[in-house]
């Protein structure tokens, strides 16, 4: 009995196909990500006129002072501590 010889397949076409796919992938990603000439510019960036300490100082003064904002409607701006005292006094009754 003689055995039939099975021809072996060459791996060369498979290797060429894999290398070709890697090159295609590299080419497409380099065109999209590396060579992109579009850059986002931050156009709404402004330099603040005040320092953080100045801003915090103004905020503290607004939160700690009392001011009548609308006398006709009876609206006032109270400090946080005074508002707490009034709420506690109102709920204690």
Tell me roughly what share of residues is in helical segments.
Answer: 40-55%
**End-to-end C-alpha gap:** 113 Å
How many strand segments?
2
Q: How are helices and strands ordered from N to C?
A: HHEEH
| Tally of helical runs | 3
| Overall form | elongated
Rounded to the nearest angstrom, the radius of gyration is 38 Å
Biggest sheet features: 2 strands, antiparallel
Mean pLDDT: 81
Regions with pLDDT < 50 over 5+ consecutive residues? none
Q: Largest sheet, order of strands side by side? A: 1-2
**Class derived from helix and strand content:** mainly alpha
Q: What portion of residues belong to β-strands?
A: 5-15%
Q: What report would you give on this structure?
A:
The chain is built from three helices and two strands. The protein is elongated. The longest helix is centred in the N-terminal third of the chain and has 23 residues, at 12-34. The model has no long low-confidence stretch (mean pLDDT 81). It has 93 residues and is mostly helical. A hairpin with a 4-residue loop joins β1 and β2. It has helices spanning 12-34, 52-64, 80-92, and strands at residues 67-70, 75-77.
